[in-house]
Each structure stands twice: as C-alpha cells, then as structure tokens.
Amino acid sequence: MEVNEYFRRSRRIIDQLAPRIGPNHGPFVLQAAGAGAWDLAITDLVGALSEEDVVITTAEKDALRELMEYLQKPLTYLEQIRTSD
After folding, report:
1. Is the dihedral of CA 36, 41, 43, 46 positive or negative?
2. Whole-model pTM?
3. What share of the chain is helix, strand, coil (3-state, %, to 5)?
C-alpha cells in the first residue's frame, strides 16, 4: 500500500468506526485524525474497540489489520476485537 492509499483508508475506517467508541477515546481518535496523526488515530481506535468490546464486521477488522500491518504495529489488541459475522 502506498502512503496516499494509507491516508484514504485510515480516514474511511475512522469515519466508520469512531462514532461507535465512547467519549474516553472518541475525541482523541478524531483529534489525532484531524491533525494527520494517522498512526496514533488508528492504534488508539483499535485499542478503544478492544477495550470497550465493540463488535465490528470481519471486513472492518480486515481493513484495520491492513492498516496496523502497514504501521508495523502489534496485532494483540486487534485480535481481541469481536466480529459480528
């Protein structure tokens, strides 16, 4: 994935999933994304989804996996996120 694709995918998944997380994490994720700190926004989003036990689709989880792998971040919290399908 090239960097512009990473930015597009990051924006898309944050727009899709950030409304599902609570007020402890939501503002930080959106603030980081708004500042272009995609690495912080994506990793905090994954952590929030895991911590808050938010159920997402397999496609959403796969999209997050690709972004986390692009960032070369551990997948520990991602693996803990439950899927609905």
Report:
1. negative
2. 0.92
3. 70, 0, 30
